[in-house]
Amino acid sequence: MNETLKNILARKSINTFSDKPISKENLELLLKAGMAAPSGKDIRPWRFIVVTDKETLAKTSVALSATEKIKGNVAAIVVCGDSSESERFWTFDCSLAAENIMLAAQSAGIGSHWISIRPNEERINNIKGLFSFPGSVEPLCAIVLGYPEQDITPKDKFDSNNIHWEKW
Amino acid sequence: MNETLKNILARKSINTFSDKPISKENLELLLKAGMAAPSGKDIRPWRFIVVTDKETLAKTSVALSATEKIKGNVAAIVVCGDSSESERFWTFDCSLAAENIMLAAQSAGIGSHWISIRPNEERINNIKGLFSFPGSVEPLCAIVLGYPEQDITPKDKFDSNNIHWEKW
Cβ of B54: how many Cβ atoms within 10 Å? Predict the structure, then answer.
């Protein structure tokens, strides 16, 4: 099995992180990976807010009601889309970018966790308010990041019942 | 740069494929990668219809108005979600699974292209009719697959204007 497949199968959502910071170089690599995703009509409507400031991280965690669930993330990337550029496809495009970010993180030994924002109206409004979003930009999710400080054994989620060959 | 990052950056959507078939073993690896994605509340609402039969591939292409755009794909995976299991998150979950499938394909030298179904009502109804979907299952996209028969040089889509450090 090649390294890409191993990395995809090894990724697990992480809740508890050490206090080791993530270098700016690594954060930029994650964003580069995110922007390498495909997008509808190649519009690339994604935007990213990168947070490493401790106070802003704490406010973000409160805005997402994630203070109980997530412990110690040293960075967060709020994945957003400009809905005016691609109203029909931005949520899909940004999801693909987010998966690239999480896989790139895994490949660098960095743990991640998708915290949903959309379609929760309260979280959407909290995040828009916290970061003073421009009009047509919408948040999709926040990816919290850090070096894992927990068991990182992945689940085996393969289920042949989900596969339909040639017909339903 | 590690193999995962190289693979993410090397992926490009492919339109023109050779007639070389994809082994069932490889298709299963792609699906295994798809099901390794994270999902909201770990519900895993994804379902996959795998098509390799030529007649069904042709009908799928017509259903998606893709006969002009895509030439010669030897397989397609229709990525669907059971909306009754995860009404709020299935489109995101299935997008993440789809990106895993496309990245796994790239790692095996297989080209892919996301053909959108949602939110196009005509395509949704065509695909539901063609495959006789059960009630609460919804199609998201079709990933067409094959060995590339075209230039596979990827675009560099990195754009620092999309990145906002610490605040918008």
Answer: 9
